[in-house]
Prior knowledge:
By secondary structure, the chain is α/β, with parallel strands linked by helices. The protein is built from nine helices and five strands, in the order βαβαααβαβαααβα. It has a five-stranded parallel beta sheet with strand order 2-3-1-4-5, with helices on both faces. It is globular, with a radius of gyration of 15 Å.
Amino acid sequence: MTITIIGYRGSGKTSLANPLAKKLGWNAIDSDDVIEEEAGKSIREIFEDDGEPHFRKLEKEVMKKLLEQENLIIAAGGGAILDEETRNLMKKSGPVIWLQASVEELSVRISGDSQTNSRRPDLTPLGIQAEIEKVLKDREPFYQGAATIIIDTTEKNSEEIALEAYQQIPS
Length: 171
């Protein structure tokens, strides 16, 4: 079994992966880190140099490899759910945890993340809050369709979220 954590950037996917993996005695991995390592450049650079379609192709390949493993917690990139085959593999591999947070909370978290500007591209020409609202609206049906567990992370720390997730994972 593999557990995939999905949600918008800043929802807490990477922050949940490690404490949840520790509770289960599993390994945790961030799919964006694997993509950057394999490509030898940041996601922002992949978008700028090669375009979003190339990034999505890399993302799909990485997710497919990761989802074949056992006892792994995957913090998936926010857009990994855009690909239908990837969504189906997530659901087939094990529980899919959708982390949610308010637009305001996501905006604060993303703005406060020092790696956001260097590693992550803007997805729209809109400001941060308008971008979050638009992209969330577009992606929500995909998150909803893939999720087997939904957790609101607003005003919760990673240990509280990990405990909530752990309690909902089928044994």
